[in-house]
Amino acid sequence: MSAEPRISLQINGKRFDHWTSVEVERHVNCYSTVKFETPFEPNRKEFRQNIKPFSFAPVQVFVGDGLLFTGTMMDVNPAADASSSAVSVTCYARPAILDDCEPPNSAYDDGGMEFDGMDIVEIASKICGALGFKADIASDGSVQDVQFSKKKIRIGRRGGRGAKGSKFARMSLQPGDKPQSFLAGLAKQRDLMLTDDEDGDLLLLQPVAAGHPVAKLVFDGLPPVIAVTPQFNPQDFFSEITAWTPTVRGRKGTKYTQKNPLLDGVIRPSSFKPDDTDRGNAQETARSHMGRMFGNMVGWEVELPTMLDPNGNLYVPNTTILLTAPKAMIYLETELLIRTVTLRQDPNASTCTLGVVLPGSFSGKFPEFFPWEEPEIAALQKTR
Description:
Elements: E1 7-11, E2 14-16, E3 21-27, E4 33-39, H1 45-50, E5 58-63, E6 66-80, E7 85-93, E8 114-116, H2 120-130, E9 135-137, E10 153-154, E11 161-162, E12 170-172, H3 179-189, E13 193-196, E14 202-205, E15 216-218, E16 227-232, E17 240-244, E18 255-259, E19 269-272, H4 282-297, E20 298-304, E21 320-325, E22 330-345, E23 350-357, H5 375-382
Parallel strand pairs: 9-14, 15-21, 17-19
Antiparallel strand pairs: 1-2, 1-5, 3-4, 3-22, 4-7, 5-6, 6-7, 8-12, 10-11, 13-14, 16-20, 17-18, 20-23, 21-22, 22-23
Helix pairs in contact: 2-3
C-alpha cells in the first residue's frame, strides 16, 4: 500500500498549516465542499486575517503535490468554552454560487443571457463567465456536436429545444431564475451531470460506463473495509413512471410510460410533467427519470482506512468498484458507481468514505439485477 499523501490548505493564496482536521467531499452530480477545524487564536494576526466571516476568501486544497479543490470560504463558526476553543470552517467549490446568485445586471445587456442555437457547453460558459469562472465538458465525455439546423428545431415552452443533436433552440435565462436549476434542466436532457474540477470551474460530466472498476472490495467484518452501510428508500421505488409533456402553441402534449422491469406484481405508479422538454421526448425523459430513480432508492456507504485505491491513486467520483458485502445485503459481487468520495485527515489518520449506487443511476440505464437477489434470479434478470 502506498503511503498516504498529506492534505494541505491555501487561504488567500498563502499556505495555512494550523488546521487540526480536514474533510473534502467530492460528488459526481453536485459541487465539492471542504470542512476544516482550526484552533481559535484571536490574538494571532495571521488567524484574524485568514479566518474571517463574510470574507468569501479563496481556498485551495492540495493532496500531496496535486491540486484537488478550488473554492470559497463560506461558514465560519467559532465555538469556545472555559476549557477549549476552535473554529469550524466550511468552503464550497466556485460553481456552487450558481445556486446562490444570478448573473449581474450587466450580463443581460444586449441579449447576453439568450442562447439561440447553442449547445450546453456554450450556454454554461456564458453564464459561468459572468460569475468569474469557466465551464467545460470532461475530456472523456461524449457530447458530440451536430450541425445546427433550424429545420430540426421545434419551438416549445420558453423556446423549447432542438429535436436532434446537442444544440438547443431558443433558450434564455430570465432575471430571477437560478442558473443552477436552469443548467441542471438542460444537463438532464443530455444525460450529463454538473460538478466541479480541481481549478474550481464547472465540469459537465457523463456517467462512466461499467466495466473498469478501480478496486475489488470484500466486507466480511474484517479489514481492509471498515464498514458498509446500506441506505434503502422504498418510497422512491416505482413500478412505472409516466412523463406527460405539455401542450404548446396548440400542439397537443403526449405521454410515455416506462415500466420497471425489476418490480413485477406490485402497483406503485408515478408520473410527472417535465417543464424543460418538448413533446417528442417523453420516452427519453421517462427512461432517464427511471434511471435516476435507481440512484435514489438504494445506496451504500463504504468506509475505508485509506484515501487510496489498490493502484495507489486517490478514490474519485464517477469511477466504479466491485463490492461484495453480505452483511449489507450485497450477496452477489456487484459493480457499483462511486457517487461521492469523502476524504478525511487529521494528524493521526487518513480515511475515506465512498458513497456508491447502482450502475446506470445517472445515465438512464437500468441495473441488470439487484445484489440481494438469489443467484438464479439475478441470472434470469440479466437475460431480460
